[in-house]
Design brief:
about 120 residues, mainly beta, 8-stranded mixed sheet, 2 helices, about 10% helix
Length: about 120
């Protein structure tokens, strides 16, 4: 199982989600392309299609989720400070790969950060 978690910043909530380079190993192969599409299911079982893109040139690929990401953010009403987690799972019996996406809202009590709640 591979995963990454990120506390969202402004760009993450409005345009695209920057992901760590190590997460690229968890995605389907790019096969010479600069983008790959994958599907992840949320806690309610809804499937979301995301596209991960990398730079076409340069040493640092700077991976980002583009297509599908803003719709996910809007649907979950995510804001700066909320957390998102992507999880890759491999079925031992069938070797099938699946992805999960989890969103957690930042909880504040009297304006102070208190934790996160899954949505």
């Amino acid at each position: 199982m591979a995963e990454f978690e990120k506390i969202l910043r402004e760009t993450d909530t409005k345009k695209r989600l920057s992901v760590p380079i190590r997460f690229l190993r968890s995605l389907p192969p790019f096969k010479g392309s600069h983008a790959v599409t994958f599907e992840a299911t949320d806690e309610k079982g809804k499937a979301w299609t995301f596209q991960c893109s990398i730079r076409k040139t340069g040493q640092y690929p700077k991976p980002v989720l583009t297509r599908g990401w803003v719709a996910f953010v809007k649907s979950k009403k995510l804001h700066v400070g909320d957390t998102v987690r992507f999880i890759k799972r491999k079925n031992r019996a069938t070797a099938a790969i699946s992805y999960k996406v989890r969103a957690e809202k930042a909880i504040k009590i009297f304006g102070a950060p208190f934790g996160h709640a899954r949505i």
